[in-house]
Design goal:
This protein is an alpha/beta fold. It has helices spanning 3-31, 44-57, 80-97, 140-144, 163-173, 189-202, 213-220, 241-251, 284-291; strands at 39-42, 63-69, 76-79, 102-114, 123-133, 228-232, 256-261, 275-279. Residues 182-294 form the Response regulatory domain.
Length: 294
């Protein structure tokens, strides 16, 4: 290698190190709320739609981005660049957690909530941005530290541990707050369930959601009539989707039963003849079309 080639290689390495250092500095400033935010009025749903192709491109193969964007949201006052960075960090973490493929859901909503940092019990109205995944979840002690600078569960070289710190700092400086909802072994299924429920309602579907198959059985036996029951095959707390389908056939035989799984059909136990199957990953539109079939 000649002198010029060596010099160019050194300059490239130095530039890359400088860029990494600048990024770390910006993320630390975001965590400490020491950055200067350039706020502007923006339509958060429109921005998310604009960013979606780039966000999808950052996801590994097999991970599909879905959106459930609430209609009629008011405009927000935010720093566009920092908001995009925060969403990119959240989607990146969610995609990394979705091992083997699956869905990551980006959702917006309008919520009336208590301000956790206020001295009074007055409710405030928030535009919420949620990123939900079907990953392995976090233990409580890990979740408590998730927004600490440099804390990471990734292998060395895989992450700086500053992504969620940037989210925390930017959100706090913008007058909001961060909620981390997770269950080990289940990921953020609770949020995902509710967000999909909201999205289906936007398509005109009347939805009742449950946390597990036992709750679904209680609904089936409680007098409410259902046209369709949709469930994952792998469910928490002991009862599977296949077992749930047996209750559906017995208690509400008029209802269609649809089961979903990330496993190939050949890897699953035999399904009852009347049960329909939707393989993962699937798009929200596919689910809507299947649910609306006569």
């Amino acid at each position: 290698m000649g002198d010029d080639a060596r010099a160019n290689a050194l300059l490239t390495t130095a530039q890359a190190a400088s860029d990494r250092g600048a990024l770390l500095t910006r993320q630390l400033l975001a965590f400490s709320t020491g950055q200067t935010l350039i706020r502007e009025t923006l339509d958060i749903n429109a921005r998310i739609r604009d960013w979606l192709p780039a966000l999808q491109a950052t996801c590994p193969a097999g991970v599909t981005l879905e959106t459930a964007l609430a209609a009629g949201l008011p405009a927000i006052l935010s720093d566009t660049v920092q908001l995009q960075t925060a969403l990119t960090n959240l989607v990146g973490n969610a995609a990394d957690a979705t091992v083997g493929g699956g869905r990551v859901l980006i959702a917006t909503a309008l919520e009336h909530r208590m301000d956790p940092d206020a001295d009074t019990s007055r409710q405030r109205t928030y535009v919420t941005l949620s990123v939900c995944d079907e990953g392995h979840g976090m233990a409580p002690d890990i979740a408590e530290r998730a927004t600490e600078p440099f804390f990471t569960t990734k292998d060395i070289g895989k992450g700086s541990g500053l992504g969620l710190s940037q989210v925390f700092g930017f959100t706090t400086q913008s007058g909001g707050f961060v909620d981390v909802s997770t269950t080990p072994g289940v990921g953020t299924t609770t949020d995902l369930r509710e967000m999909i429920g909201l999205a289906l309602r936007d398509f005109g579907i009347d939805v009742a959601t449950t946390a597990d198959a036992q709750e679904a059985v209680a609904l089936l036996q409680g007098g409410a009539r259902f046209d369709v029951v949709f469930s994952d095959i792998s469910m928490p707390n002991g009862m599977s989707g296949i077992e749930l389908s047996e209750h559906v056939a017995r208690d509400q035989p008029q209802a269609r039963m649809i089961l979903s799984s990330g496993y190939a059909r050949s890897q699953l136990p035999p399904l009852p003849e009347q049960v329909e199957f939707l393989p993962k990953p699937y798009r929200l539109r596919q689910l809507v079309e299947l649910l609306k079939q006569a």
